[in-house]
Amino acid sequence: MARAAQPVDVLYFIEHRARELDIACTVTALLQSEYKLSVQLASIAINRASTLERFRPKVVVLPYCTWIKDMGLEQIVGHWPNAKYIDLAFEQVLGQTQKAFKAPRDVFARQHVVHGAWGKFFAEYLKESGVVGRNVVVIGNPSLALYRPPYRQYFDQQREALADCYGLDIEMRWVFIPENYGWAFFNDKLLRERIRRGFNRQHAYQYRQFALQSLRAAAEWWARAAQEERAEIIVRPRPAIPKESFVAQVTEAVEDIPPSLHFIKEGTVREWILASEVVHSSYSTTLLEAAVAHKPIYMLAPLPFPDFLHADWYALVDQIESYADFAASIDSQDHNNWEALEGWVNQTMLAEGDAIENIAALIASVARGERELPSPVAIGRQARRPTALKLYRRIRRSGGRIVRAILRTVGITALEYRWDAHEKDRLDQADIEARVARWEKLLGL
Question: 6-37 as b/e, with b when 16 or more CB fall inside 10 Å?
C-alpha cells in the first residue's frame, strides 16, 4: 500500500545548492521558530518525482518561474494544483536581450504566482511583462543580505579551513574568480531552445562566441599570474557548468595548469569572497556581493562587451583589459574601489530592510491565507492531461536512455550526455537540519 503524502506548510525548492541553500536554511529557521510553520527543502532537479509523492504542501517556493514549461514546473503544478506558488527569481540583473528571454509569458506565471523582486527595477519589469500588480512584492536581494550582520558571522573566519581543505597557501594573496562564461558551453541545441523562448537569434550566437573567446583570453591571464606565483588564483565554475567541462575548455587555451591555479566548485561564494583579498569576475553579479563585503573588485574584459550585454552597473567597476591590468590589480592596495558599486546596490536591492526576514514574512502571509492568490487548479489539470506530444517526448526520452545505457556498457558516452548541470546540487537532509539548527542558534531563535 502506498504511503499517504505528508502534509507540510511550505515545500521550498532549490535549484543550485551553492547559490540558494544558505538562504533557504536561514528562511526555514525563521519560518519554523517565529511563524510555527512546517518546512521541507528539496531539489527541483534531483529526485523530483519522489518529492512530489512524499509531500502535500500548502505553499511551494520556486527558484524560477517564467512559464509552466520551465524545468519541472508542469510536473509540479500538475501534481499540486491546489498549492500556492511563490517565485524567488534568482536571476534578476538582466541584460537587454535577457529581458525578453526571462519575462513571465503565460497565465500561470502572470496570475497564479507571487514574485519576489530584489528592487523596484525588477518589480516594474514584472508588471510590464503582464504580472498582476498584487502578485509582485519587493523583498530585496537575499544573497546580498547575508553579507550583513548578523548573517555574516555564519560565513566569516573560514580562511584557515579552506586553506587546509584545498591545499592553499594561507600566506599568499588569494584572488577569487567566480566566472560567468556559461554561454561558452552551449551547444546548438541549447541555443535553439533559448531562441525559441525569445532570445534574439543573432545575439545568441554572438553571445556564445564572445563568452568562449573571453574565457580563453582570461584563462591565459590566470595561468600566467599563477606561474609567476603572484597569488593563489581560485577559479569557481558557474553552478550549472560541470567542472570537468570547464577545466577541459581552459586547457585548450592553456596547456599547463600551474600549481597556484585552482578550479574549485565546492563551498559557497560567500565563504570564498570573505576569505579572499581580491575578487575578479566577468559580468557576474558576484561582484555585487563582493562590493557589499567590502572587497576590492575588478571586471575581466579582455574583449569589448557587446551592446546587448550592457548593464548600467558595469561602469561602477574597474575594468581589466590586459594582462598588465590583471597583474596590477592583484598587487593593488586600492581597498576602497568597491564603494561606488556598494552605494548603487544599497539603493537598488537593499532598500527594503532585511531581505531574509522579508522572504519569511512573504511565505508566511501566503501560507496563512493573508494574501489573495488563486490556486492554479485548471492549469494543473491541463498539465496532467496526456497529449500526443507528451507521449512522443516520453517515448523519445525512454528510447534515448536505453541507447545510452547500451553504449555505456561498451565504454561509449557522448559528450552531451556527460553534461551534468547539477553535479553539486544533491541535498542531504542531515546537513540541512544541522544548518537550520546552527542558524537558529546564531539568530537567537
Answer: eebbbbbbbbbbbbbbbbbbbbbbbbbbebeb
